[in-house]
Amino acid sequence: MSRINTNVQSLIAQRVLNQNNNGLNTSLERLSTGLRINRGADDPAGLIASENLKSELASTQAAIGNAERADQVVNIAEGGLQEISGLLTELQGLLTTSANTSGLSDAEKSANQLQVDSILQTIDRISSMTSFQGTRLLNGNYDYQTENVDVAVENYRVNGAKFNDNALNVDVIVTQSAQQAGLYLSLGGADLDLGGAQNSSFTIEITGALGSRELSFASGTSMEAIAKTINTFTEVTGVTATASGTGVIINSDQYGSNQFVRVQIVNEANVQGDGVFGFEAQDSNTIDTTAIGTFGSTAAKNGIRDAGQDIAATINGVQATSVGRNIRVNTDFLDVEMTISAAEATQRGSIAAFSITGGGADFQLAGKVDIAGKVSLGIQDVSTRKLGRFDTTGEGNFRRLDDLGSGKTLDMIKGNLVDAQNVVGQAIEEISSLRGRLGAFQRNTIGATIRSLNVGAENTAAANSIIRDTDFASETAALTRGQILSQAATQTLGLANQAPQAVLQLLG
After folding, report:
1. Could you give the CA distance from residue 270 to residue 192 in angstroms, rounded to a whole number?
2. I need a surface site. Which of 198, 223, 247, 340 has the fewest CB within 10 A?
């Protein structure tokens, strides 16, 4: 080279040195921060992906916290319900003890009633005091508010509901009627006629879902008297009877496929009647014109049986599960159960059941805040004025747990202890059902959600790490390479700067 005004070799060496130093600085920055991407210029697309993953991770971790908080809320509610369950069991024992009227003095009955009053007061206190951060859990705060309940809905309970609008309408379409089991005994007149067999008795065995009884009737017994005798044992057999013209209609006390009536003729005694008839398949109120069997037939002597039928229905377009007149759907968006009145359950049609306008306990168990990530749970009021709702007469005469208090209709001293036990049994079933729902929510919904979210958080963090974190093995190698190249470029720059001095020798 014979020019000194422009040292091209030096410029090249400076450029390479700057590049090597920049690479060295980048490696030092990545090793010191632990991040491969420290600014957008490092990897624009990678930065966008990493920031999105960081956002998802933060939401997922918050959802895990929400699920753990929900678990604690349910734990506290379960603790209160467990105590109430124990008190109801004790109350059941007191009822059985008090029913032994001949073996108890008035003082003992009064003492038992005092215990009952104490139990009822404690249940109410637990209901009103069980709380989480000041919010009462068992007094109906987390129950759903409803409006416009149709008269066809005899009883209902909303266990869960999710909706974005101001209200959620619950509509029922009955596609198959509920039926009692039923048979008709055509006995030939208003009074029983044994055709002159005065010393004989017409003997039948009546069997239902609860049990059976063998009954005998003398000639001249009225249809009303026969029906009344059968009804005397309804609590034992589960069968009711109604006098109808020249015979007696025998029905199961309840509706559904698990209900039945069976009539066996033990001694026909020359009864003057047409035999045992069923009801038309499409109309349970109309007697079939063809007898199933005469009273002397082999079929009647072996026993003629008829079963009931469960209602079939849809709720908001979803096929409901059913038992008798009770229907229920349980989906992610709606969990509701109800009892349809006998008048509406025995015919097909549509029912605008009720509207859900709010309430429930909402838990956000997903990272994305929307209706799909929300879980709603209804916790009913478990005070004594709400528990144990039971129809003691079958005609809408409902009693509740607080009716067992002193001076009320079901107290231990003057009350009907059979009805009282039915009310307590219903209350025990309601508490057990609620505890079961909460337990399933903890085990299946919360437990599975926490496990799933933890796995999701791990995978999201791993994906973000791959994109953004420094690979120390690779970056350490790059650092060593950068150091060597930087040192080499520095020495090369020195040599390039010395090269023009050789031109001075030409000046002599």
Report:
1. 11
2. 198
